[in-house]
Amino acid sequence: MASNLTPFTSRLALLRKPSIRFSTKAVQKLQFIPKLSRPVAPFLHRTTDFVSVHYSSCLKARAINASSQDEELVVLGIETSCDDTAAAVVRSNGEILSQVVSSQADLLVRYGGVAPKMAEEAHSLVIDQVVQEALDKAKLTEEDLSAVAVTIGPGLSLCLRVGVRKARKLAGAYALPIIGVHHMEAHALVARLVQSDLQFPFMAFLISGGHNLLVLASDLGHYIQLGTTIDDAIGEAYDKTAKWLGLDMRKSGGPAVEELAREGDEKSIIFKVPMKQHKDCNFSYAGLKTQVRMAIESKNIDAAIHVAAASEQDRKARADIAASFQRVAVLHLEEKCERAIEWAMKIEPSVKHLVVSGGVASNQYVRSRLNKIVEKKGLQLVCPPPSLCSDNGTMIAWAGIEHFRMGRYDPPPPACEPEDAVLDLRPRWPLGEELAQGRSEARSMKTARIHPSLTSLIQASMQQ
Ligand code: KG4
Ligand code: ZN
């Protein structure tokens, strides 16, 4: 591992037009980057130079330590991209020292979904406590950390900001390198923590509240996008179905639908499987949501009456809708997943595993149905445990560790960073380049304000 470590090479050095001049000269003068040959653009954009002797000397010691003893890396991961405030401390040998998640259950119940401003306030209220608890549970202090990893995108800007601020404050105060993590890559990479022999290339199917993503993971930071959603993700469809059926939203809608569906007849209502005519690997759940809403209206189900208080007949009607919805929602996953495996095997015949991760991958029905497809195609399914499928700090710390080992990280921020510093947040940040064959005619992708993909940034840096 040690040989994989290269001197400080900011992954954000890949930004095409860095808005900060972090001069090579200044860095060399401080002598903490022996072979830095190009300007570094940290993921913070500021107008003033922030190199300080204080952190450079600490960092040098730490970097040497990290490169000589990779097993000693201890990384704090912070995640606030959506509604969960999460932190974890993970060792580079895969040991999870602590994991803390504070979810916004009451807000979900009140608003039936994530309201960005409320979510931001909720993150701000608990972030310090969550990080402190993660350190306490790990029986460590900030001094013991090798680096801080934090989600910088994709996600809600307001929410991302809370985590990034906290990470930078902590990293600045303790002179720690910082790693900006792609949330979806972290969902995929956490499978390599769970199953240490999982090698590239592998396939990943990431299913969550905001994403349906099928990728071929060729290497760390190198992903080919086989399919994505053209509108809503499957988790969003689960959440709305739960809300309209008057289910308990405290653990998000998905688990509630999964549970009620066990009581229902999945063939009682015939919903149309989305995008059957499209011979690609893309998804659409907006139409299925509408079908579900119409079925609920036609059965006069009143969401204001909680399912626990519903009559037996009413409960049965709701369970039938839940089961019928789930069958079709997952059939859609199965069809596209099967095609994606065929495509991926043509590109990389050595693929042996399909990772299913993201919140919806906690669903037992989803897992068992996808397992059948994966086995039929001669692959092996890798599914992290539910606590690592839904948003968590461990996956961020682990993705941070993987990139840190490759030398992709930023130097510590200044110890006293101004509150109004402009942060590099990437709310719309694709993971990989889209396979030409996979482009959907049905999609009117808004390309404005989309960040260059992680893969393109890393490739650009490697060519330099
Ligand atoms: O990955 P995640 O925690 O956050 C995002 O990045 O979106 O995924 C959250 C989504 C929610 O939509 C939630 O309803 C769904 O995952 N989910 C489930 C289950 N557990 C969580 N969906 C279906 N069945 C479940 N058991
Ligand atoms: Zn997620």
Automatic annotation (TrEMBL):
Give the location in the cell: Mitochondrion
Q: Tell me the domain of life.
A: Eukaryota
Q: Which UniProt keywords apply?
A: Acyltransferase, Carboxypeptidase, Hydrolase, Metal-binding, Mitochondrion, Protease, Transferase, Transit peptide, tRNA processing
Q: Name one Pfam family in it.
A: TsaD
N-terminal signal peptide:
none
Q: Where is the Gcp-like domain?
A: 95-398
Role, per record: Required for the formation of a threonylcarbamoyl group on adenosine at position 37 (t(6)A37) in mitochondrial tRNAs that read codons beginning with adenine. Probably involved in the transfer of the threonylcarbamoyl moiety of threonylcarbamoyl-AMP (TC-AMP) to the N6 group of A37. Involved in mitochondrial genome maintenance.
Per the similarity annotation, which family is this?
Belongs to the KAE1 / TsaD family.
UniProt protein name: Glycoprotease 1
* Origin species: Salvia divinorum
